# Entry
Amino acid sequence: MSDLHVRGGITTVQPPLSQAVGYVVVLVVGVIVAVVMMLLTKILKQTTGEDNKKTEMFMTANRTVRTGLTASAVISSWLWSTALLGSSFVGYSYGVAGPFWFAAGCSPMIVFFALLGISCKRKIPEAHTSLEVVRIRYGRLAHVVFMILCLINNIFACANMLLGAAAVISAMSGMHIIAATFLLPVGVTVYTFVGGIKATFLTDYFHTAVIVIVACYFSIKAFTSPQVGSVGNLFELVKSAAERHPVVGNQDGTYLTMTSKGAILFGILHCCGNFGLVIMDTSYFIKAFSASPAAVVPGYTIGGVAYFAIPWALGTIMSSVALGLENQPDFPTFPRRMTSSEVSNGLVLPYAAMTIAGKGGAAAVLLITFMAVTSTLSAQVIAVSSILSFDVYREYFKKNATDRDMIQSSHLGVIFFAAFSAAFSTMLHYVGVDLGWTLYMLGVVTCPGIFPMVFTILWRRQSTAAAILSPVLGLATGIAVWLGTASHFYGTVSVATTGEVLPCVYGTVASCFSPIPYSVLITLFKPQNYDWADFKKEKLALEKLEDDLTTAHGHIPVSSRGNETLLEEGGAQSAAIDAQELKRWGRIAAFWAAATFLGHWVLWPLPMYGSKYVFEKKFFIAWVVVGIIWLWGTMLVAIFYPLIDGGIQQMGEVYRGLRKRKEVAKETRAANDKGDDSTSPSTPSAGSIDDATREEHNDESNQ
# Structure
């Protein structure tokens, strides 16, 4: 990568863990998690009526997921292996500015999505994927164009995750990198196959809990280790590292400044690329559709703000540890520096962890890398599965597909994409592509559909021709600029030159913003005046949703089929209240989207960049301490908020359901012992047990 110092030495680092440990984590732990999720899915079906053989439950969790679990799932959705490995990678390359811009390139996009999510809830409440919105408004040709763009987005996102995770697992355990690539999706495939989106939410929660706990452990272990000792000592170590190896493009060559040309260029391409990853990733829309209306905006806002601390705090601390201790015997590569290949493969975090925590640190990194990649892979797999089932199979092959047909096609989609993503990542590995290359160039292919998709949901004037042509022209423009600048600056087009910062920045910006003038100019010829009410004329839900679909707060009844199946009593009044409530959430979402962007991109970093400020010791200590506090706050949001907001209540419902089943089974056995007929009307059947439990659940929800 550019701006990385040339480093000598090709000596490989001996893996601190055995291959057996790698296989246990990747395969055994994955299968255990899958089995636990399968059991939970079965228990939820028996006790609360959550039947994953119904498409609405499998794909959207009956649209009842609450704020706490939504926020946890949002945090998990961005807890890519890239976030953990990449934030330390750019911190090692650019100093304290790197992790900040990594985090700032994520949070504002997540919060902005709350605006799109609540707009979809208001305009097309029955949708399952964003592509259904495109098809209804613009027709099949636009539908195919956006389908291809979304699939490209998901394919490269999965490759980015798998390349980084497989490289780290191989480096930590000696496990063959291709074996890791193919085995990582196994557990994901199993529990997503069985549990659908609800299993994704539950495993998101579990994986996020493990990752943030380990991140918090590292945030303390770094300063209790004898090599560092305190935040003040870490400042001195990083200051000395800059004296040994000044950073090109940074103020005074120091790592301790926000005035970093390389970091802000990375921030621009990362911001644009992540904007594309959010808008063009159907898993975000699926989670928004799965959340109750009152949970979308607070869930995405809280999750987006809380997420910021993970790449910022963890990346700052661990990259500083690597920089400060690289010249000491405890560092794995001593006496040489890390090579460019090691840095680009994401090994800064594991090497820093090994330095301060030995084999335990290596095992912890191995575990969180596995948790991160499987959690985000689950979201990607269910997203592609939804595209293949709803947007391909149902639309083009079997229009009148039954619930069973849709579940079968979803299952096949899960298996197909898990296998394909592993094969595609293997191909990239063998042509010399690594985590750094995909991290930099991702935006070139993910960004062209951003604004055409946003306009589809928010701008009634965008024409069909503009929706079809602008993303195609934007993709062509971005690729042309990317390859052209690589040739201009470096004289050739190769894997190495196309992974440099400048070509990726130019290509990503062109890919992201060129569709705006394309769309506006094409629209001027024949603008559309779309009636948002037309969205609700399309019947998308496969079965009538339960009457207990209520908001997480206040239990406001929600329509399951547009405005046609409102509750009989007070239906019109409920619909009016619901519409007003959704508009209010829309205004709140717009406010927080603007505030988050201004805070993370303007008010906080730019004055520090313009003033050319170099951190003093007290300021660095405050910077790190605030990051640690924020990180621990994120742990509270990710772990305890879902429990408070409905988790404990549902556990109580499950307990009561299991107890009732046990009591009925006991009565049945007693009746059998007395020679009674077990099928007599006085003895409830298994089906009546489920019905009674479900009725009890509905009664409690409607109180």
Summary: The longest helix spans residues 348-397.
